[in-house]
Amino acid sequence: MTIDRRGFLTALGVGGALVLTGSTAGGSVRGAVSRPAPWAGTPAGTRAPTAGPPDWSALKARLDGRLLLPADQGYDVARLGFNELYDGRMPAAVARCTSATDVQSCLDAARGHGVPIAARSGGHSYLGYSVPDDGLVMDLRPMARIEVRDDGTVDVGAGARLIEVYAGLAQAGRLLPGGSCPTVGIGGLTLGGGIGVLTRKYGLTCDRLVAAEVVTADSRVLTVSECAEPDLYWALRGGGGGNFGVVTRFTFRTEPAPPLTVFSLRFPAGATPSVVGAWQAWIADARPELWSNCVISGGTPPTCRVGGCYVGTPDALNPLLDALIAAVGTQPGTRGVQPKNYLDAMKYMAGCSTDTIAQCHPTFEGGRLTRAAFVAVSRVLTAAVDGEAVVGLMAGRVGLDLLLDSMGGAVAELAPDATAFPHRNALATAQIYANTTPAGQAAATEAVDAVRDGLAALGATGAYVNYIDATLPDWGTAYYAGNLPRLKSVAHRYDPTGVLAFPQSVANA
């Protein structure tokens, strides 16, 4: 089964919903159009070469051969990120890291030689800063072990994909709130915050982080928690991947997995403005057990669908859906409500239509990972915006989707500076997404940026760092708001010479 991001979106129409998750530790680039030159603008004086390139042969020996160079068999697949638009990126080497010791070896070998050094978890980064041209990619995918402990915590290797985490937790009857894209890595999701279909009840993924094993830029291995390296612990919870060190293992608090109910409502095209307005008021007042998104698809006229996940039974959910429909004033053309267990609900939200977990994983076809080609950007809604105006932004934009993903509930229980993730008082996040091709990339980029800027004009000026965006104005403030000065201080403390810096790293904000 091939799963792409358009598939996640269209699955909502038959009973699915989407929360896209990305990370600066992923592997795809958005924006050959007006994007920064690779590693342009890194802190002055950093990455100054010493005596030529790293000794790749010596590093390969230290890694027992798990270092792929351009001439090696397997390199052409290992170097790829998720987004097919940017398959031209050619790192100097890809290291298959199996432990924190391997990461130390990579940093020791490459530090100071003037090459970009980056970690890659799941490979879904929208800007591909973890697949640098002529740089070293530390591929953490081999570190995917999941261990659920008797006390309800779970240790997760930084290379684990979400579907693997959910499957491992489901076997123990536990859950962790996270995104619904099954092949996203737990690393990037967590470090950028981690919004998903259970956040209103259980908080962001980063809110569940108890401890992390981190390899710093100078190759120290630290165990970070509220009591050990507390500033770094604070920064890891929403400060973005790749900014402060390489996380190799996470420990999360989990919860017992209750019965869940998933739902989908598809409304007639003419009702779209009413749906957008009513949905915002409805979700703002909803109990935390209810998570929902509203997806507006561009066209003439734009169409709309609402989906989500409820912590509870259909009997408890259906009156809430009735209230939304009454507020819209139009009956949906389709209405689907299904009870699910935790794992099946997560698979449903990902658009996986079978009961085989393996079919929710990406597969190789002709030696290449099945992936997608897209551009996407984001905004954050702090308050309701005019439904007519939002729909107007999507008029005529065939092939473009605007996803409003609800926030509130448990997310808002923490202060904006309690963790590095600042958008605690948001009503929703907005993602603007378009599938495209290399030939259509410029037009798709122009379209998503226009909707992004239109939302900003309506008051939605924040942005989500896991939907990292090359052309976002004032991106440091948009991602981090008032937390940016403290984040810059933490970045300087743990990586003072910018070993891990990239164009939109905190150090460059």
From TrEMBL:
Transmembrane regions: none
Name of one Pfam family that matches: BBE
Region Disordered, residue ranges: 33-53
Keyword ATP-binding: no
Record-level Gene Ontology MF annotations: FAD binding; oxidoreductase activity
Biased composition annotated in UniProt, kind: Low complexity: 35-53
InterPro entries per the UniProt record, alphabetical: BBE, FAD-bd_PCMH, FAD-bd_PCMH-like_sf, FAD-bd_PCMH_sub1, FAD-bd_PCMH_sub2, FAD-linked_Oxidoreductase, Oxid_FAD_bind_N, Oxy_OxRdtase_FAD_BS
Keyword annotations: FAD, Flavoprotein, Oxidoreductase
Segments forming domain FAD-binding PCMH-type: 86-257
Superkingdom of origin organism: Bacteria
Cofactors that this protein relies on: FAD
Family: Belongs to the oxygen-dependent FAD-linked oxidoreductase family.
Protein name as catalogued: FAD-binding dehydrogenase
Species of the source: Embleya hyalina
